[in-house]
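TODO from last week: model histidine kinase.
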Amino acid sequence: MHLVHQLLTLAREEAQTNARFELVSLRRLCERVVADISLLAEAKQIDLGLECAPSAQPDDSFKVNVEPAGIEILLTNLIDNAIRYTPNGGKVDVVIKREDGLVSVGVSDSGPGLPDEECERVFDRFYRSTGTKEQGSGLGLAIALKVAQRHHATLRMKNHAGRPGLNVTLSGLRSESQP
């Protein structure tokens, strides 16, 4: 059933020609996704957190001009992957920040990481990392990449330096102050 859902989502993302963009709070969207997926984290005793980088405005909700349903799918896939590949008792952090007038969100985990040569390949359809025991369709990150591309944003994955884990960052989301 999950595979069918992922295939339908990928087909919709690939067929998407004119998405309806609107100004939304990325902070609120992340809060909702983290709350929705928190039971999966609790089942594995994973510390799942959301943090917003300090901002010039204390009430900054990190408003961005996006297609909300697509960004929600992207965030759900990134956080779900981080939780699934992080061992019991690990940590997953979601961090929102502003960079050069644009907004980014990163998902960082304390899982085993990936061989460097696989960090780009994981965005290919049906790609599954060698040696993984986790079940999955190999479509979640391909879907996330399609959503990022539709938003003219970038999605990058890299291992943490000197410690286990991965960081996946969606960057280049246009903030409300951008023309």
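Done. The chain has a mean pLDDT of 84.
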